[in-house]
From TrEMBL:
It is found in: Cell membrane. It is a multi-pass membrane protein. InterPro entries: ATPase_P-typ_cyto_dom_N, ATPase_P-typ_P_site, ATPase_P-typ_TM_dom_sf, ATPase_P-typ_transduc_dom_A_sf, ATPase_P-type_domA, Cation_Transport_ATPase_IB, HAD-like_sf, HAD_sf. Residues 650-785 form the Hemerythrin-like domain. Signal peptide: none annotated. Residues 397-420 are annotated as: Disordered. One of its GO terms (cellular component) is plasma membrane. Gene3D superfamilies: Calcium-transporting ATPase, cytoplasmic domain N, Calcium-transporting ATPase, cytoplasmic transduction domain A, HAD superfamily/HAD-like, nmb1532 protein domain like. GO terms for molecular function: ATP binding; ATP hydrolysis activity; ATPase-coupled monoatomic cation transmembrane transporter activity; cadmium ion transmembrane transporter activity; metal ion binding. Keywords: ATP-binding, Cell membrane, Membrane, Metal-binding, Nucleotide-binding, Transmembrane, Transmembrane helix. This is Heavy metal translocating P-type ATPase.
Length: 787
């Protein structure tokens, strides 16, 4: 693969005779445009000073010089456009400049020259792109491989690897070519290809794709493809090809110029034919100089770029902003985009008669302190969030793909796989296994002194702002939302159902994603959102590629047109709102300016407007349309103001408390489940624990929200935004009192009675459901507002 890239570079060198002059011309253009702006501005200013001092000849000389300076590059721009079979607004400007020189209207010429230079400079600033060469894809690619031959391991160039070679892949190394595991097992981090953070295990004879990382111990691989024909090389090739094949965008100004140019030339010709005076035709050209196109549209787009940047969205050029404003289809990745991309503990389960769920978590986290596995990090984070006192593990060993074993507090502990088939699992463990399947969660089992004792379920949760973002994107004009993910179908479908997406496709490889994006782009302007190396080709192929740049792959950012610099997918909705509004204002400014120019052209045609007054009138039109275009810098009317510091601080506080209260939700569910099979002392103790957690932790939290957070939000968002949440607080209080009443009855009657069980179980399950929904609503509606 690397050799192929090197050959491509060599080929580029052979074409240096062609590439060199093009690069030189680009460099000249970058210097010419600001120099032209400075020169024409100085000429107009110098002539104005001379005119004020009463020296008309010097003033005319300055203005004429500014006009001549602008004519030369303008002619070059027109010739270049005509060679590409595109006649744009610059042709009118050239005709107007030449006409003012011909009839001696030098002030008008200097004004047009300054307009032209300003427009070109603004357009260059709006359209200048950052490099898109996907450097990180190439930097990440291995340059060599370790080949085993006759019992010896030698390092060879990657291009020398052939099909059938046995390669040795060490820990942390990138798999160099596609192959099959010869000796293993192989524990792989496939996130570079699939976008999923979970590790995969491949046994002997199973296929492994190039580009994935060895997350376990040393394994051997039999090459089934050369480097040039392997998966990772294909990703690089697809990204480059997609970027090169995307058709150039026809900009807003060019679309208007397509009819404004022939109309202007026609009116100027009629003026000359009717009056027999070239001066009248020049007057028409002067007032027709398309500054609303040269200036107003770029100003609105550049203003939109500036406003987007203030919201943490970097848009590479004005064309991307215009396309974003016209988008109708969104193709979006799941992991790291709609979800947080970081595994999180969903539930902790414990075997009947064994340690409590909290103790299961403490033992697992204590042992996982020595593990670098991504799930171990999530378990450790959860234990620290719950302020559990962790012990120092002893005699630890970690077997890749199996788990960690060691001694914690004098007991033998294993965290990882259970080693049991589903049919061998005890009843409680089968229930946990079923829930993992239903919730699309991963399971980490805890084996204590040889006995399966507990389990930790982990999942990749939705971002707080994902549901709100999807609704806002629909409002912004998107009519189709499609999710592509390398994850399994079960969790992918759950995310799609919660967010109300139109279609979900799971198990997608980079080739699948790029095919899907091309298919959608053929039907409508399509936006693709992703954050990983595996998304880079699809981002390059989309009409607008959007990268989660805060912690996504560099290659994704370089292939994208839009980069979200903050780790909030909601910024995409902000960007679409800004893009649609900026484009709408650009259209208003261009159309309004051209309408006024058409009226002035009619006056010039009738001889009512000489060239110099016409140029001044055109300047007034320019000022009006530019001021209108600058509205794109301001927030839209009705935009929600930023949160007050007090409200933002309260949101952060209560969001943290939600994290702390997840063990309370687990305890409520565990107690309800226990009542199904047991209503003796153990079940009563579990319900008492729930009542204690409700009284000391959950209810104080809900009351504090009602009396502190909601009033702060009401002041800024209006009381209607919290009314339904207050009703949920009342229901939570009612169910908590009902559970407490059942406990009082049990105390009076010497234990839980059979007639209490159905209602108590329903109250616990009902409370658990209400709390989960209530927490989700608050996180989506309120917590997502704060950065």
């Amino acid at each position: 693969m690397v050799r192929r890239v090197e050959h491509a570079v060599a080929d580029e060198g052979e074409r240096g005779a062609n590439v060199g002059p093009e690069a030189a011309r680009a460099a000249v253009r970058r210097l010419l445009e600001p120099a032209l702006l400075v020169t024409t501005g100085a000429a107009l200013l110098g002539g104005g000073i001379a005119w004020l001092l009463g020296d008309q000849d010097v003033a005319d000389a300055c203005w004429a010089a500014g006009t001549v300076v602008a004519v030369v590059p303008a002619v070059a721009w027109v010739v270049a456009a005509l060679c590409r079979r595109r006649a744009g607004v610059d042709l009118i400007a050239v005709l107007a400049l030449a006409g003012t020189l011909a009839v001696g209207e030098y002030l008008a010429g200097a004004l047009i020259a300054l307009m032209l230079a300003t427009g070109r400079t603004l357009e260059a600033a709006a359209e200048r792109r950052a490099s898109g060469d996907l450097r990180s894809l190439l930097e990440r690619a291995p340059r060599s491989a370790r080949r085993r031959t006759d019992g010896e391991v030698t390092v060879v160039a990657l291009a020398d690897v052939t099909v059938g070679d046995v390669l040795v892949v060490g820990p942390g190394e990138v798999v160099p070519v596609d192959g099959e595991v010869a000796a293993g097992p192989a524990v792989l981090d496939e996130s570079a290809l699939t976008g999923e953070s979970a590790q995969a295990e491949r046994g002997r004879g199973e296929a492994v794709r190039s580009g994935v990382v060895n997350a376990g111990g040393v394994f051997e691989l039999v090459a089934t493809a050369t480097a040039a024909d392997s998966t990772y090389a294909e990703i690089v090739r697809l990204a480059r090809q997609a970027s090169a094949e995307r058709a150039p965008t026809v900009r807003l100004a060019e679309r208007y110029a397509a009819w404004f140019l022939p109309l202007t030339l026609g009116v100027a010709g009629i003026a000359w034919a009717v009056s027999g005076s070239a001066e009248r035709a020049v007057a028409v050209l002067v007032v027709a100089t398309p500054c609303p196109l040269l200036l107003a549209a770029p100003v609105a787009i550049v203003s939109g770029l500036s406003r987007a940047a203030r919201r943490g969205v970097v848009v590479r050029d004005g064309g991307a902003l215009e396309r974003l404003g016209r988008a109708r289809t969104l193709v979006i990745d799941k992991t790291g985009t709609l979800t947080t991309g970081r595994p999180r503990v969903l539930q902790v389960a414990a075997a009947p008669g064994g340690p409590s769920p909290g103790e299961v978590l403490r033992l697992a986290a204590s042992l996982d302190q020595v593990s670098s596995h991504v799930l171990a990090e999530a378990i450790l984070h959860e234990a620290r969030t719950r302020n559990l006192a962790l012990s120092i593990p002893r005699e630890t060993t970690e077997e890749p793909g199996r788990g960690v074993t060691g001694t914690v507090d004098g007991r033998h502990v294993t965290v990882g796989r259970s080693g049991l088939s589903p049919s061998q699992l005890p009843d409680w463990a089968r229930a946990v296994d079923n829930r993992a399947l239903l919730d699309g969660a991963a399971i980490v089992w805890l084996v204590l002194d040889g006995t399966l004792t507990g389990a930790v379920l982990l999942h990749d949760p939705l971002r707080y702002d994902a549901p709100r973002t999807v609704r806002r994107l629909r409002t912004a004009g998107l009519t189709r939302l499609l999710m592509l993910t390398g994850d399994r179908p079960e969790p992918a479908r759950q995310v799609g159902a919660v967010l109300g997406l139109d279609e979900v496709r799971a198990g997608q490889l980079p080739t699948d994603k790029i095919a899907a994006v091309r298919g959608e782009s053929a039907r409508a302007v399509t936006v693709m959102v992703g954050d990983g190396i595996n998304d880079a080709p699809a981002l390059a192929a989309a009409d607008v590629g959007v990268a989660m740049g805060a912690r996504g792959a560099t290659s994704a950012s370089e292939a994208a047109d839009v980069i979200l610099t903050t780790d909030r997918v909601g910024r995409l909705a902000d960007a679409m709102d800004i893009a649609a509004r900026a484009r709408r204002i650009a259209v208003q400014s261009a159309a309004g300016g051209m309408g006024m120019s058409l009226a002035a052209m009619v006056a010039a045609l009738l001889g009512r407007l000489p060239p110099a007054p016409g140029a001044l009138l055109q300047e007034a039109i320019d000022v009006a349309v530019i001021l209108n275009a600058l509205r794109a810098l301001l927030p839209a009317r009705g935009t929600r103001p930023a949160l007050e510091p007090e409200a933002e601080s309260l949101i952060h506080r209560f969001a943290a408390e939600h994290d702390d209260l997840r063990d309370t939700l687990d305890a409520i569910r565990e107690a309800a489940g226990l009542l199904t099979a047991d209503h003796g002392p153990r079940a009563l103790t579990a319900v008492r624990d729930v009542d204690r957690l409700l009284t000391t932790r959950l209810l104080p939290h809900e009351r504090a929200e009602e009396h502190q957070l909601y009033p702060a939000l009401d002041q800024q968002l209006g009381p209607e935004t919290t009314d339904t949440m207050s009703r949920a607080h009342a229901e939570i209080e009612r169910l908590a009192r009902r559970i407490a009443t059942h406990l009082r009855l049990a105390e009076e009657q010497g234990g839980l009675q059979h007639e209490q069980l159905d209602d108590l179980r329903a109250s616990l399950y009902g409370l658990h459901t209400v709390l989960r929904l209530h927490f989700a609503q608050e996180e989506e509606s309120y917590f997502s507002l704060a950065p």
